[in-house]
Amino acid sequence: MSNQLILLTGGSGHLGFRVLVTALAAGYRVRAAIRNSSKASTILAAPSIQALAPGKNLEFAVVEDILADGAYDEALKDVTYVIHCASPLAGQSDNYERDHIQPAIKGTVGILSSAKKIPSVKRVVITSSIAGNVPWNEVNGEESDRVYHAEDVISPNPTGPYVNHFQAYSASKALALNATIEFVEKEKPSFDIINVMPAFIIGQNELVTDPKDILSGTNGLAFGQVLGNKSDSPTIGTSVYLNDVANVHVLALDPKIKGNQNFAASQATVWGDAIDIVKKRFPAAVKDGRLPADGSALTKKINYDASRTEDVLGLKFQDYETQVASVAEHYLELLEKASGK
C-alpha cells in the first residue's frame, strides 16, 4: 500500500483508465494528465471511480499539447512515479510521420525530459508494445520459429514509407522504445525506467457507453467476428487481458522490482476461438441474435515469451476466454440499457 503520487498520462483511454482504477485501488494518489477538462468529467462519472470514491487521491492536470517543450513540467511537481500510457493509436492518416511517428517519439522523450527536472521522480513506467520487439517483416511475413522477448530491440530503426496505418503504428512503438534507450544512455537520469510491452489488449472498456462503439480500439480484433465481421488477412496471435496489463504497470512501481527492464504482457491467442467462446458462455444471446457469432478472424502464429513477467511480478495472465467474455458481458449490458429494460 502506498500513498505516493503518480502522474498518469492517457487516463481516459482504454488501458490508461484501467491503470487509473488499479492504481487508486492499490492506495496510490494519482494526478491524471488530460487534454481538456471534459475528460475529467468522463472519468469521474465512470462506475469504477464512483465505487472507489477517491476524493483527494485523484486530481487532474490539463496538458493541452503533450508535444510542446516542457509540456509536463508543471504536472510533474511533487510526483514520485510516472505511468506514461498516452500514445497515438493505429488510425488512418494521410501523414504517418506527423500523426504517428513524431507524436510517439516526442511524447515519450518529452515526458522523460520533464521528469529529469523533477528530483522527486523515482521511476517512469512506459506503455510500449510488442511492436517494439517484433519487426514488421515478422508481423506481416511468413511464420517463423523464432521466440521473441521483451528485451529484443529492432535495429536499424524502421523508416517509411509505410504501407498502412498498422505498419506506421508498429514503427512508432519501435522508434519510441529506441528513443527511450538512447535517452537513458545520453541523459543518465536519476530515475529508472520500466517498459511494458503488451500484445493486443482485450477487455471491457468501461468508458464505452454506447453499444455502437464496442468495437473501438483493439477489442474489435476479438469481438468484430462475434458481431459478424469477416477478415481475410491474418493477425498475429497474441493478446492480453486489459486488467492484467494494467496490473503489470502498477506492480512495476514497487521499489522491490529492479528498474531499467522490460516486461512483456502477452499470451498465445487463436482469434477465431471467440466464436466458440460466446456460443459456450452466452448461448441465449447467440440464439436470439444479439451475438450473431457468424464472422471470422484469421490467426498468424507468433512466439512471444512473457513468462518472465509472470515469474517476477507473481501474476498469471488470464486466458482469451476471460478477455472475450468481459467484452461480451459489457456489450450485452449496454444493449439492455439502450433498450430501456
Topology:
Layout: E1 5-9, H1 14-25, E2 29-34, H2 37-45, H3 47-52, E3 58-62, E4 81-84, H4 96-116, E5 123-127, H5 136-140, E6 147-148, H6 165-187, E7 192-198, E8 200-202, H7 219-223, E9 235-236, E10 238-241, H8 242-251, E11 261-265, E12 267-268, H9 273-281, H10 283-287, E13 299-300, E14 303-304, H11 307-313, H12 320-339
Parallel strand pairs: 1-2, 1-4, 2-3, 4-5, 5-7, 6-14, 7-11, 8-10, 9-13
Antiparallel strand pairs: 10-12
User: Strand fraction band?
Assistant: 15-25%
Number of extended strands? 14
Question: What gyration radius follows from the Cα positions, in whole Å?
Answer: 20 Å
The separation of the N and C termini measures 40 Å
- The percent range for helix content is 25-40%
| Strand order, largest beta sheet | 3-2-1-4-5-7-11
Number of helices: 12
Instruction: Name the average pLDDT.
Output: 95
Report the order of strands and helices.
EHEHHEEHEHEHEEHEEHEEHHEEHH
Tell me the structural class.
alpha/beta
So what's the overall shape?
Answer: globular
Biggest sheet layout: 7 strands, parallel
Low-confidence stretches: none
Tell me what the structure shows:
This protein has 341 residues and is an alpha/beta fold. It has helices spanning 14-25, 37-45, 47-52, 96-116, 136-140, 165-187, 219-223, 242-251, 273-281, 283-287, 307-313, 320-339; strands spanning 5-9, 29-34, 58-62, 81-84, 123-127, 147-148, 192-198, 200-202, 235-236, 238-241, 261-265, 267-268, 299-300, 303-304. It has a seven-stranded parallel β-sheet with strand order 3-2-1-4-5-7-11, with helices on both faces. Strands 8-10-12 form a three-stranded mixed β-sheet. Helix 4 links the parallel strand 4 (81-84) and strand 5 (123-127). Helix 4 packs parallel to helix 6 (165-187). The longest helix has 23 residues, at 165-187.
